[in-house]
Amino acid sequence: MQKIFRVMIIIAMLITAYLLILAWRDDYADAPAVDTVPETTTSVGADIPSTTGAAGDIPVQTLPADNNTVASNTVTATPAKDTGLITVTTDRYDIKINPEGGDIVYAALKQYDATLDSDKPFVLLENNSNRVYVAQSGLIGQDGIDTAEGRAKYSHTANNYVMEAGQQTLSVPLTYKKDGVTVTKTFTFTQNKYPIDISYQIQNASTQPWQGQLFAQLKRDDSKDPGMSDKGALSMATYLGGAWGTPDDPYNKLKFKDFNDGELAVSSDKGWVGIVQHYFVSAWVPENFTATFFSREAGDDYFIGFNSQPVNVAPNRQVTLDATLYAGPKVQSELKDVAVGLNKTVDYGLLWPISKILFAILDGIHKVIGNWGWSIIVLTILVKIALMWFSNKSYYSMAKMRAIAPRLAALKEEHGDDRMKMSQEMMAIYKEEKVNPMAGCLPILMQMPIFLALYWVLVESVELRHAPWILWIQDLSAMDPWFILPLLMGASMFVQQQLNPQPADPMQAKVMKFLPIIFTAFMLFFPAGLVLYWTVNNLFSMTQQYLINRKVEEEQKRRTVKVLD
Q: Do 185 and 81 touch, CB atoms closer than 8 A?
């Protein structure tokens, strides 16, 4: 009976894991996987969001600022040969800004490699034949400088900006003048930080009031997730799509196919809108004004962003509007300081409470050890220690079952034709030996949610991206390239199986023999870190079970000697 339940639980665990992964794929794999997309023809009209129905007062009004302070943190730069895009280099970014519109059309993350063996940085934002993914912002509305006819063409003092060593901030000012109104769009980069501050200083020196709205949006096509490029063809897809949050509703997903359904119609003075992909996220955050969130689809492109309420600037007055752009890795400790709920883009799925605890422990261990592989091993041991009381009772029960197996076999020979009598005698033996046949299922039941939760940790945590362990394991978040760990896991499972009482039923025995093979095949394509966890777990369990088996055998020998005496 015990073996039947153990087999059923193991099979249920495999099926559950498989179904969860399929559900995750269905949820997160909406974007078609295409290698390239055609050259995109820029449609300015399609890029400009609608302002219909907007109303309201000035969100933020500041005191007039000295124009000289806007560029106080800029560096003296020599104009580049390429007079088109403005290049910005910081400790974390390689950025390119299009002076027409002032959009960020390229963002490479210098601290993250494109692929495991690449010396090139990971490119999050780009605008080329392979992918359209840009961060746009501007001024629209009654007197807006960005219209369906064209975007504002900013003037700038330099084409190259470089953050020097020790420099805390770097400002990149862009200027637009028309009819007595001067708009200064300033990008401010901070050392050792991903959030980019974007401010619009609107100075009205004309005799007429000025009215407009700030918009900020992310524009993306339906190209595949570049974060999955080195995970292999059989890797499990993660979420690629839109997301948004407010303090009252911190995290919501919005699939690309739903961008035109009107689901996103939220106004908030705080919150964020973004696009989420594997390991990375880009998000716009309004600063100190009420914004109306929106999503839409135009042609092959998807847009998600916000509009501010109309801003009125009286003659000889100045107003400044601010927004923050985050374009970087999904590091929870950094995201939580940008906006409420943005850290939830690290989506651990259904078992997120357990996943968060596991990651917190794992991260703490890593800060001491400095290697994620050894940290996983320590985590495994800590989990086994935490569950030792339960596992000891289980293994002790299985050891007793193993010890009384000859007595049960004799019962079968004696009462094989009388099932009721045999069951009564078996129950009597279980009671005498204080054996619970169901106790052997307990470790598997307790390990199952931990196993699945750790899977999400390894898949979703950017900290483990390209994290090496030893020798051939150079990426714990990807499958073992040589399948050595899955084979070791299968071997350990087989050895552990030999320590358990063998089923009396021949069919059950055959099923049990095939389980290590099935489990090994199943684990071939799982992250190496997860297989490492399960292998160490098996080795620890083998040792624990072996010692308990020896203890029970000694107890049985002493009882036998006592009876004979």
A: no
Mean pLDDT of the chain: 77
Enumerate helices (H) and strands (E) in the chain, giving the number of each: 13, 19
Q: Torsions phi, psi of 278, nearest 5?
A: -60, 120
CATH 2.40.30.260 fits 31-229+237-347, yes or no: no
Q: Which residue's entry shows tokens 């690290």? A: 346
Contacts for 221 with CB less than 8 Å, ≥ 6 apart: 37, 40, 131, 132, 133, 300, 301, 302
Residue-level pLDDT at 329 = 94
Q: Give residue 225's identity as a one-letter amino acid code.
A: D
Task: Please write the tens of the pLDDT for every residue from 114-141.
Answer: 877 778 899 999 998 888 999 999 999 9
Sheet holding 241-245, edge to edge: 169-178, 181-190, 196-204, 317-329, 280-287, 272-276, 241-245, 252-254
Write out pLDDT tens, residues 36-94.
333 434 455 667 776 554 332 222 333 333 333 333 333 333 333 334 899 999 999 99
Rounded to the nearest 10°, the torsion over CA 221, 227, 233, 237 is -80
DSSP string, 42-90: P-HHHHSPP-TT-----S-------HHHHTTTPPP-PPPS--SSEEEE-
Burial tier of 82 (Cβ tally within 10 Å: 0-12, 13-18, 19+): exposed
Q: How far apart are CA 355 and CA 24, in angstroms?
A: 16
CATH 2.70.98.90 residue spans of the chain: 31-229+237-347
**Cα gap 531→402, rounded to integer Å:** 28
Which residue shows structure tokens 């219209």? 147
Cβ atoms of 173 and 157 within 8 Å: the answer is yes
pTM of the model: 0.76
Res. 26: pLDDT tops 60: no
HEC string for 258-293: HCCCCCCCCEECCCEEEEECCCEEEEEEEECCCEEE
**Residue 235 CB partners (closer than 8 Å, separation 6+):** 228, 478, 479, 525
